[in-house]
C-alpha cells in the first residue's frame, strides 16, 4: 500500500499548520522566518498534494476551505506528537519515574543482589516496578531481543555474546549449617567434612553431585549428600532447622543470623557474577540509573 507521507516534505506540513493558524501568507512567512514567495510556492505545492485550494482569498485575509478545516486539528496533533518523538530525552527523575523492568535472575541473584537493594530502590523510585523472571540461559538472547527481559544476572561463561556486560563481583564458597550445629564449632577436618550430612542445590532437579564432589573425587574421596533441592531459598531454610550442612556462596549467608559459617577444608573454585543487558537499553537514562544503583549497592 502506498504511504502518502512519502509524497510530502514534512516542512510543508509545518507551513500548512502555520497558514491555517494565520490565514495569511505574509504573517505565516514572518512566523516561519521565510520569504513570502517561498511560502507562496509551498502553498502551491500543498494545493497540488491535497487536490484542494486549502486557503481562498477573503475580505479579511484568506479563509480555509472545508478540507483545510478538517485538516487543522489532526495536523496540529500529528505535529505535536512528532515534535515529542524527536525531542531530546528528558533527564531521568527516579522520584517521578513510572517504569517496569523485567529482570532474569536465579534465586541466588534474587537473594543476594535484588533483595538487599529493594528498600533503597523503593525510596528513591516509588513508581517503578520490578518483575523477577526465571533465568533460562539458552533463551537469554531471544528474550532480550524480543523485549521479554531488560536485565540479567548470570555468570559470564555461558552468557550470550550479544548482550552488554558488567562484572559485579567474584563469589567464593563457604561451609554453612545451623547456628548451634555441634560439628561447626570450628573448621572441620577434611575427613569430618566428608562424614557430615550435606544438602545440595540442583537447579536441574534431583542431582546429588556438584563441583565439590568432583574435586573430592580427584582426591579419591566422597561426601555424604543426603538432600537435593532446586532453590537456595529452600536450602537456607533447611540448614537453619536441621543438622544438614552445605557448601554455599558466601554472599548468600553473610547476613543469616540463624546460620554458622566456616571455611571449607578444601578449596572450591568460585564464580564471577555479571550484569547483562540488551543493546536497545544501553543508552536509556532510566536503565542506566537502575544498573548503576544496583552495581554500587552490590559493590558495597
Automatic annotation (TrEMBL):
Keywords assigned by UniProt, alphabetized: DNA-binding, Transcription, Transcription regulation
Domain HTH lysR-type residue range list: 8-65
PROSITE patterns, alphabetized: HTH_LYSR
Pfam family of the protein (one): HTH_1
Keyword Lyase in record: no
Record GO terms (molecular function): DNA binding; DNA-binding transcription factor activity
Domain of life: Bacteria
InterPro entries hit by this protein: LysR-type_TF (IPR050389), LysR_HTH_N (IPR000847), LysR_subst-bd (IPR005119), WH-like_DNA-bd_sf (IPR036388), WH_DNA-bd_sf (IPR036390)
PANTHER family: HTH-TYPE TRANSCRIPTIONAL REGULATOR LEUO-RELATED, TRANSCRIPTIONAL REGULATORY PROTEIN
Family in the record: Belongs to the LysR transcriptional regulatory family.
Protein name: LysR family transcriptional regulator
